Amino acid sequence: MTQSLKAPVKARIRRVDDTLRRLVERRGRCEDPTEILRATESIDRWLDERLVLMRNRDDRQLATSGRASG
Predict the structure, then answer these.
(1) 33 in helix, strand or coil?
(2) Which of 6, 17, 49, 51 has the greatest number of CB atoms lying within 10 Å of its CB?
(3) How wide is the angle at C-alpha 36 spanned by C-alphas 35 and 38, nearest 5°?
(4) Are 53 and 17 in contact (CB under 8 A)?
(5) What is the pTM of this model?
(6) Do residues 9 and 53 make contact, with C-beta atoms less than 8 angstroms apart?
(7) CA 66 to CA 42: how far, in whole Å?
(8) How far is Cα 29 from Cα 21, in angstroms, rounded to an integer?
(9) DSSP designation for 69
(10) Which superkingdom, per the lineage (predicted)?
């Protein structure tokens, strides 16, 4: 799931969002409870990845702006 650090964070977040959209669509079409659960677990992992990317982006913005978090 984790991608190269060289890719801009915005682009990485967009890729995660695209993956999330596909998974949500797939889950909506599923009738098998096992497949629904698998899709839901994948969505959960990708949401965790998105949160990490957003935190990293926010931390970088704070570091470059010189503001302290609090």
Answers:
(1) helix
(2) 49
(3) 60
(4) no
(5) 0.73
(6) yes
(7) 36
(8) 13
(9) P
(10) Bacteria
How much is the pLDDT for 57?
86
SS3 7: coil
| Separation of alpha carbons 42 and 55, rounded Å | 20
Task: Give the pLDDT score at 4.
Answer: 54
Q: 33-65 and 9-29 are packed helices; what angle lies between their axes, rounded to 10 degrees? A: 160
CA 64 to chain centroid: 23
Q: Are 70 and 51 in contact (CB under 8 A)?
A: no
More confident residue, 60 or 36: 36
Burial 26-47 (b: 16+ CB within 10 A, else e): ebeeeeeeeeeeebeebbeebe
What residues does each domain of the chain span?
A: 9-63
3-state DSSP helix/strand/coil percent for the chain, to nearest 5? 75, 0, 25
